[in-house]
Amino acid sequence: MEWAYNGVSWVLLRWHDLWSNVFGGDDNGFLQSDWAWVLAIVGVVITLRIILFPLFVKQIQSQRAMQKLAPEIKALQERYKNDRETLQKEMMELYRKEKANPLMGCLPILIQMPVFLALFHILRRPDPAQTMNINLYGWTDNDWSTYVHAKLFGAPFWSTFLTPADDLIPVDSSSLNVKLVAGILGALMILTTFLTTRQMILKTGWNEDPNQRMIQKVMLYGIPVIMVFSAGAFPIGVVIYWTINNLFSLAQQQYVLRKYPPPQQNTANAKPPKPGTKAHEKMLEEQRETEQRRKDLAPKPGQKPKQTGGAAKPASGSGVNGANVNGSGAAKSGPGAGKNLSRAERIARAKKVSGAQQASKKKKG
What we know:
Keywords: Cell membrane, Chaperone, Membrane, Protein transport, Transmembrane, Transmembrane helix, Transport. Interacts with the Sec translocase complex via SecD. Specifically interacts with transmembrane segments of nascent integral membrane proteins during membrane integration. There is one protein chain. It is elongated, with a radius of gyration of 34 Å. A hairpin with a 2-residue loop joins β1 (151-152) and β2. By secondary structure, it is mainly alpha-helical. The chain has one domain (2-266). Helix content is 63%, strand content 1%. The protein starts with a helix and ends with a helix.
């Protein structure tokens, strides 16, 4: 993780230098060290969002493609339910043809996680009791000192909701003040996390699969509940980052979801678009594409199922000992014959075969 520590720290310090120079330094400017560090954390969020925006757009596009392919995927699963290897090949071919990538939805999260862990490590290191390794990750003595004494409404950035009162005395802060600021910011962090997840689910729609719907509910309600207990261990600087990041996510998702609206096929109760509008034409086009894919996947009319075993076709009108046992003039014998018949038809056929064999034995007797 050293590469992540150095990279995130470099971005954070450059943004802090920018705001300090623009507003006249840490001590004399309109934005003193407290707000310079807040804006530096906001700068880390902006930098990350700029980098991830193209991936976020591709993620939405991939999700839309996956939603449009849901009926085709279900048809393939029913058609090849006993042949997993062929099913995987057909699904991969379908993904390639429609330019859908199921793994794209996880990529932005995988990139954000190292950034969050690195920022968590960097922002909780500086404290009044720490005197070693203060120059790691590109920090100077001045950076360390200004961050240790910087406060947001009287609460140090490195402090947490659980920080003891004795640790706050060297920076002239109180435990009550820290708990108030950390509690309010923690509540905002949990609320914005819930709103971000809710926005995505409402825009894309609840999944029809019960298992996937359960996962959506766990993400919507479970993660905020877990954060109630974990937020107390987050430094105030990390809580600021998470809250600002959620606010950017809300705005970004609103823009991208409006530009790439979800398909209407999974929203049965949604109001259909007015005829003649672009939305209505797009809906008709999606319906035509879906119907064409279903026709392509469906077996052709009159197509016989493939038989295994390589049995030769018997002569017309022959059955057991030359008798036509199926009563329809069609030859049905050999391995695999009759496997597509219903249970009642197989029983009736077996009785006819048994009767024909008994009649043959009586003639021979």
